[in-house]
């Protein structure tokens, strides 16, 4: 706590501080007529003469228009609590929240967008609470099971100075790998009845996309593929993944040693192949400056026949990336599986599911009753249909209707989610339990996801979010160094022999080795804490 005090005197005036607190924390203690949803999964309402506990929730997602809204009242009634809302905007939340903390008004539940860097800073300042994984598992058993089913490694993100901070969080969609999307008509035109399955077949397809006039216009004016050069992490992932590497992720080598993908022999080999394809005209030279909007245009204008940074949802007919624009032009994009490389590898690049935890105010460390109540509340809203539907959609028949398990939000303005308090404000863990997707995805989309992701092995960074001192010092320069070499190697301005060796030496010498060593240590610390 004494560290927190050091923060107080460098902040904005007390007048601003208190005006924010009054505006953000004013609660409403009104009662309602009971719970509209009568779900058998729900946690039973707490009864008796238990003292009413005040819980302050600060969030920058879907702030409700009014205090004392329907969702708030339902939660207050169910858990015998009084909720104080601290409503923040996505764009300005950090500045205002910092001012709030400086005033000494520490909420019990912190905003969703707080990241791992915030966690370390606030832990050092005595602003957030540590909480044991064992206690979380005790009072949030369904949540714990849901989290572990997605990625048990998520617990490591909240580990700092030998303690766990906050409630771990995952985004399951981060495990969905990138899939290649092909112009179906072009495939048929070059003699393929299905997408290629191997890297060799892919090269054959791309070669024929260039040389065999797949659009039938009598001109040699097509390329095999393009890439998202403005976001190099997503560049030609199909090729790199076939060699079992992502150039911008850390991985374990064959000996179990931590290595950075960008300086491995697998990346050298993949770049050699990409340069060969580039020189052969298989790759659109404008990939260097392309973003997704450009890829949309290239595909629907039939300039390229393959886009490889799509995910399963992009193959839905209503997806604004590729599928819908293509359909409007009479084209069909068909999903392929990750192609198998020369060593038998077939992976799909993914970002990973791990995220920074939902942080809790330091006062909860000493207030066991409130700490348990917060965990019970979070368990309810994240893992029961009743709590999930209430916090995400609001009031049945008023702000949403049900079609089987699927919740259908009403579209009239009077039923807007923010008017009733629905959204992520009261449910910062609403994406963790994948069983809840039955309420948010149409059955046909669930089937599409299962079909396209079947048999796909996603490849993501072995560490995920972490506060690394070396990364803060060096990563900007290292990223720029790598981006420059990567593009030059593909286009042939740099070779993949001596120039790759020089790039690797430069990357390691410029801080890359220090970052790699720190990643190795962080992984060891996480393993030791299990």
From TrEMBL:
Q: Name one Pfam family in it.
A: SBP_bac_8
Locate the transmembrane regions by residue number. none
Know the name of this protein? Putative aldouronate transport system substrate-binding protein
Q: Which UniProt keywords apply?
A: Cell membrane, Lipoprotein, Membrane, Palmitate, Signal
Q: Which PROSITE patterns match?
A: PROKAR_LIPOPROTEIN
Top-level lineage group = Bacteria
| Region of interest: Disordered | 28-47
Q: Which InterPro entries match?
A: Bact_solute-bd_prot1, SBP
Q: Which residues form the signal peptide?
A: 1-23
Task: Say which species the protein is native to.
Answer: Paenibacillus prosopidis
**What SUPFAM superfamilies does its record include?**
Periplasmic binding protein-like II (SSF53850)
Q: Does the keyword Membrane apply?
A: yes
